Amino acid sequence: MNSSGKRKSMSPDEESRESNEEESPLLTSQIPASDDESGASEESEDEGSGSDESSSQDEDDVGEDTSDDSDSDDESDNDAGYDTASVEKDKSAADPGTTESSVNGKDEYEYDSSDEEDVRNTIGNIPVNWYDDYDHIGYDVEGNKLIKPKQGDALDEFLEKVDDPNYWRTVRNKFTGQKVILSEEDLKQIQRIQSSTHPGGSDDLYAPWVDFFSNEVMEMPVTGRPPDKRSFIPSKWEKQRVGQMVHALKMGWMKPRGEIRKAKLSHDPNAPSLDLWKDDTESDITKRYRMHIPAPKEPLPGHAESYNPPEEYLFDEEEEAKWDGQEPEERRMDFKPAKFSSYRAVPKFEKFINERFHRLLDLYMAARQRKMKMNVNPEDLIPKRPDKKDLQPYPTREGMIYKGHKDMVRTISPDPTGQWLASGSDDATVKVWEIATSRCMKTIPMVGKVTCVVWSPNPAVNLLAATVESDVILINPNVGDKLVCSNTDSTLESYVESATTSEHKSPVTWSTASEADHKKGVRLKIEHQQEITHFNWHAKGDYFATVQRGSKGQAVLIHQLSRRQTQAPFSKPKGLVQRVMFHPVHPYFFVATQQHIRILLDHFVLEVFFVQANCKYISCIDIHPGGDNLIIGSYDSRLCWFDLDLSTKPYQTLKYHKKALRQVTYHKHYPLFASASDDGAVIVSHGKVYTDQLLNPLIVTVKILRGHKTTNHLSVLDCKFHPTQPWVFSSGADSTIRLFV
Amino acid sequence: MGGTKKKKYESGSATAFVSRNKALKKLQLSLGDFRALCIFKGIYPVEPLHKKKVNKGSTAVKTFYNLKDIQFLAHDNLIVKFREKKHYLRRLKKAVAKKNKFAESIIRDNKPVYSLKHVMKERYPTFTDALRDLDDCLNLCFVFATFPHSQRIKVDLVQLCHKRTVEFQHYVIAAKALRKVFVSIKGIYYQADIKGETITWVVSHKRGYEHPQDVDYKIMETFAEYNSVLLGHINIKLYSDSHLVYPPQLTERIYHDTAKCLEGDSADELLASLAPQIRTTGESPDELEEDPEVDAMNAVNVDDPEYIEKSKLEAATISRLQSLFKGCKFFLNREVPREELTFVIRCCGGEASWDSSLGLGAKYGESYDGITHHIIDRPTVSNQRLDRTYIQPQWVFDCVNARVLLPPQDYFPGIPCPPHLSPFVEEKDGEYVPEEKVKFLKRMRGEVEEEDEEESEAEEGEEEEESEDEEEVQQQAAGNKRKRNAKEDAQGPEKKAVKMAVSEGAIEKVDKQKALARQEAEERRLGEMMIPKKHKRLYHKIMTSRKKSSQETRKLEEKKEKLKAAKKKSKGKKEKV
Fold this sequence. Notes:
The structure holds two protein chains of two kinds. In chain A, 22% of the residues lie in helices and 24% in strands. By secondary structure, chain A is α+β, with helices and mostly antiparallel strands. In chain A, strands 10-11-12-14-13 form a five-stranded antiparallel β-sheet. Chain A has a four-stranded antiparallel β-sheet with strand order 5-33-32-31, with no helix packed on it. Chain B has helices spanning 13-16, 20-27, 31-41, 51-54, 67-74, 77-97, 101-109, 117-123, 127-132, 134-145, 155-175, 217-241, 263-272, 287-297, 305-322, 338-347, 394-402, 435-449, 454-499, 512-529, 533-576, and strands at residues 17-19, 64-66, 178-183, 187-194, 197-204, 329-332, 351-354, 373-375, 389-391. Helices cover 55% and strands 7% of the residues of chain B. Among the domains of chain B are: 13-75, no CATH class; 80-114, no CATH class; 117-248, no CATH class; 306-421, BRCT domain (Rossmann fold), CATH 3.40.50.10190; 432-443 and 540-571, no CATH class. Chain B is flat and about 115 Å long. The interface between A and B is large, with 87 and 107 residues.
């Protein structure tokens, strides 16, 4: 049969049949056109053949009717190329007349292939009951009325029922109104359908599949249909296509695959070419080009990497152990230097490929940043120092040691004349030394540790104030000018207690010393409620201030010596008061709490200044004799210089001490200041304040003085300048006092 | 006014950078493709100045790219090609899985190929730009050229890299551009001067390979692909600029030995041996030789007479280096690295050959009378000939670095060679200079001053040791004397104390210099204290680095002293024995 046939799905509904009915006359009309090969489309050819073959289907019908071959259906399916309706086997619609009309002629191509006669009634697919009121039931092909067959009445029906043995199997054809007697076969089929078995009634449902259309060439054709003409002649279309290709090949438009492959292989798009940098002189400097950050080059190898390095570059045992112990990232060199006797003996370097790989990773993965390489000479970073001669005089070396105390010397104070030095120690004594000879002139025993010793700044009297626990003790040490000493005593004794003073409840009690104490030199005693942490004289020597520990409202007390009066200026001090000071010239009062310094005016009410020290914990404070500058030392090893005219923030913060500062002090005349710290050093700096307001103070460190030993993490506890000479005293935890000249 | 309020992170550095993940999303590429694209296009992550701002307030660790870079990538045709490749691979996989050989072959034929030429042009607008990037390119190509063929590494790429490196080496030979060589334990470093750019590359020792496991070969391959293309372009430019025929061609027709290799390979093999000369185009080839002096004249600092003098001197040494081995005929023994030495010798105008059984390119055998130097790397020489110098390979390298022919006595076979020093190190003040270098520099200076000494120089090597010994003896003697004096000093006062006499008071000697130094140190310390906070960190950083280097120097010096002492001791023992 024809090989180009397509299997088509069968649709057993009537619609398709009708469509086929419509088509078929058209197709038949085309048959001659397709036959003469004049150039109809393939489709039409196919359809033409389909119409040709519809004849064979009828034959199948017959076969089925007669032999009831179960395979026949399939067969007709496989006869591809024609349409479906012919295969309809709808028994219900089938006319019994079909069987009659489908006569089997000898030549199967002679008879008219259409199955139109089967349908007597041509009314189409409409309900038949529309014809109920007419005599006819429809029309035949010629358009003649189909007269309804004569219907008997109920009596006839009954009689028939009684007479006719076939009555039970007589049904009426709706479309023609004729009676049809069902055959045995039909009955059987109905029975099979009713019992839900295979309607075809095949005996063996599961018979093995016979692949009828196999690839094997059969001896006999399956159908008797003669082969098409087109199977004998070459395809025109193929010929045309081949012709086109040949032409394309000739013209070089098309190439055989092998040649294409060869061309592709031989043409390398990345082959070196000269046109890349042809015009070397000109290049467009794009922004991209400018922004490019080139990768840094790999470092070049040093002597140590040589295969035959000088021997000093080889690792000794210690270095080798260190190298082995380190992580690869920490190592200074990524290889162990080795010496080989000859080039031949050099082994391969294990990490060579890894090293190259890591370089590649760096190239594409490492984030790049443009870094300005600074070519800085470290010498330039050190600020220019003025000439040494301009800074002199300043203490340069240790001149004297004052030995005698048995415990750490917490406090020292030179007297205003510069002849005597008083010191207070933890061994509960106050000693008075002659500065020039280092001789201890007086030792005054106290009841407890001496925390502060300060000479009265008044040159007319010779008065020494010492604080022992919660007492302030005023001592006349009886050294030096006799006249002054006696004057001191007389001024102290000249005081007459007035009645008014006792009205207020004083926070302290003033008392004169006992006879025994008087002999020792003690003149007055001011008992406080709490331990005294700090003591300071006013510049005139009449007032003095004390700081008590703990007592909040009365932390700061101001005492007047001439009237023996005491007042507590602050009802509520802000913060924990560390130090207090009187301004040397103006009626200002400085209160240093842990982190702030407040400067107060006029009976401690008006706050003039609020200075923020940039440190955690102020330990000491001193005011420049000019009064406009201030230095503070803190426990976090900072020294801040404030220029009060300039700002409330430090003008300069110096962090040259390594440990907490204990004392800072200005020199009265020379432009010097010194700081003492727990790190054992007394650092003397030149701090010049200009009278010109436009010039900032000049601060230059000039000397680091060391001498005190460190005991119990304490070293230098106090330092003071000599009132007239450029000398500095320092007292330390090693129970000595030193003078640096 | 009523302007709209400016929102945070909508302008400035927050929008100038993108993280890698965002870039991937934007480009719609897989990570691998993105990597390859970055490698080809030379895009790298950047470190923003204010990372927190860029990261929109977060401090998480992220990689950032310039947004402009990513936009630049997005417009490249390579992305399309990568997608095509992905598609190609998918189709191929399918065909292979279905065992559809026909479809497979068709798909393979249509494999997408891409060109990197436009990338080169973008990345290196001028040829000098390309030369600046040549270091890494050469390093990788040389690594790939020596890779064994394996499943991971494609043979084509390895061969291409090898070809390119051979071409490059031939150029260096022809241009005599080699300046320095250094044999390190990692490999051999070469430094060449190509068109004024100093280019350094390292070649591993040829000792056989194992592929390390912790290396991503995919990345290496991508780089190699790019670098082989780049090197090809650079080579052709270099060749054309120095009037050489590209691809390199042999000057003479060779009659290959079928026993050693296939006919087609023999030319390549011969080229790879670096021995034969390559053909020039026949245009003024001596232009190259004039280059250094011209450079010197065209130098920027024409006004500076010192600079001109210096550059003239440099030019002279370079021309001396280029004809260092002129007239020398080397014979390389079997155990000597052939290609490396041939390369170095030919760069300096010499000729090298080897036994013809070892490989192609041999011009003369061992018995050839014209041989002046025989390089040998084994302790003994069998049937030594008097008409040639037997030396170890290190001599060649040291000569190149010294730019003069060194006396061969120190390099005779069997003798331990003097240390091989790195020519790349230029010691600054205060850094440790190896003794050998000091000696060499002294000798060079001596040569420059008086050329008559050359005769004595030959013997110097031997004499040096003796003179050293003498010096040592003298030093020892001096030391002894000093010790004796000290002893006397120590004993002196004791004796006098016994006598209870008052001695004449000696004036305390104040070492003025020491005092001055102390004072200076103190002043410096005081100055350091006054450094403003702004510069303190920088200052201390510089000082610590200086300290470190000085520490290293001290350590090396100490070690040297120790070694000397140990040597002396062992020598003394030997003498006693």
